[in-house]
From TrEMBL:
Keywords: DNA-binding, Transcription, Transcription regulation. CDD domains: HTH_LacI (cd01392), PBP1_LacI_sugar_binding-like (cd06267). GO terms for molecular function: DNA-binding transcription factor activity; transcription cis-regulatory region binding. The keyword DNA repair does not apply. Residues 10-64 form the HTH lacI-type domain. The keyword Endoplasmic reticulum does not apply. This is LacI family transcriptional regulator. Signal peptide: none annotated.
Length: 336
């Protein structure tokens, strides 16, 4: 018969008292370390389950010399960050590490997200698409070894893992130019990580193909709303483009939605290219042509870089080559 615990949350001492063993032996069983027989383990875990005792994992981490935690900040508004985080979990697990997530949102700035990771004693921080400047980044790194993802760090001693965004956007322009498009626009990412490189890659590729007269860059951002607004501006001001390269897949879905609402065909009237090849791009009714960042390789390199920082090894920058994935939103321009 199970013994009752008066109202309060059951403790390790309660389990020990009911089992007739020492709290130290209960601790051995709960931590899964050698020192108890199989029979004793079964009896103690059964009693713990019966009275509702749950080990305090936070307290256990505080007692450890190493938390075995990697912290990750990510932007709630970017679907690609979720794709990347999924693979960071897998990469960290292969090294015996767990992952602590801390979101950046319109109501929660990056500083708050990082501070949460510091409080949880994360051994290193992976900053996805960080928007802080060099001074702020150096301050973060002084509290917890940092690695920036999806942007260069710009700070000596802080490594980064990213795709070659200049080459990525250039491949989108080359694809559209090869299809015969001469009026190509870019809805940029504003001040987001990677936006400057993607703008530069677009302009450079347009110049190489001699398409300057029909090219435009308009302000955008990371959200569907910003993509839709960029498309509205392009349609309202002058001759409409026959192809659009959006900053990311999220922005591109806003472009597609605006075109559908206006009765403009894709790709018949306007071709659309996204960036990231996130899960959005692969939805059956969207099938978006997009620039693919290798999320598995990015996650592996990010975790390797974080562990190198923890070990005090030399800092390195990792730049991976993106590739274009063609789906249903691009085709040659309509004749006439």
């Amino acid at each position: 018969m199970t013994e009752e615990i008066d109202g309060a949350r059951p403790t390790m001492a309660d389990v020990a008292r009911i089992a007739g063993v020492s709290p130290a032996l209960v601790s051995i069983v709960m931590r899964g370390v050698p020192g108890a027989s199989d029979e004793t383990r079964k009896r103690i875990t059964s009693i713990a389950d019966d009275i509702g005792y749950v080990p305090d994992r936070r307290a256990q981490k505080l007692r450890q010399t190493s938390s075995r935690l990697l912290g990750v900040t990510f932007d709630l508004q970017q679907p690609f960050h979720g794709d990347l985080v999924e693979h960071v979990y897998a990469a960290a697990g292969r090294h015996g590490y767990d992952v602590m997530l801390s979101a950046v949102a319109p109501t929660r700035d990056e500083g708050s997200a990082v501070q949460a990771l510091v409080r949880e004693r994360c051994e290193a921080a992976l900053l996805l698409g960080s928007g802080v400047d060099a001074t702020e980044l150096a301050g973060i790194d002084a509290r917890v070894p940092a690695v920036t993802l999806l942007r260069a760090s710009g700070v000596d001693g802080i490594g980064s893992v990213r795709s070659d965004d200049v080459a990525g956007i250039a491949s989108a322009v080359e694809h559209l130019a090869d299809l015969g498009h001469t009026r190509i626009a870019h809805i940029d990412g504003g001040r987001s990580a990677g936006a400057e490189d993607r703008r530069r890659g677009f302009v450079d590729a347009i110049r190489r193909r001699g398409l300057e007269s029909g090219a435009r860059v308009v302000a955008g951002g990371v959200t569907e709303t910003e993509g839709a607004e960029g498309m509205r501006i392009l349609l309202a001001d002058g001759e409409a483009p026959t192809a659009v390269v959006a900053f990311n897949d999220n922005s591109a879905t806003g472009v597609l939605d605006h075109l559908v609402r206006r009765g403009i065909g894709v790709p018949g009237d306007i071709s659309v290219v996204g960036y990231d090849d996130s899960r959005l791009a692969r939805i059956a009714h969207i099938q978006l042509t997009s620039i693919s960042q290798d999320v598995v390789a990015l996650a592996d390199a990010a975790v390797d870089s974080a562990l190198a920082r923890i070990a005090g090894e030399p800092v390195r920058d990792v730049v991976l080559a993106p590739t274009l994935v063609r789906r249903h939103t691009t085709a040659g321009p309509r004749l006439g």
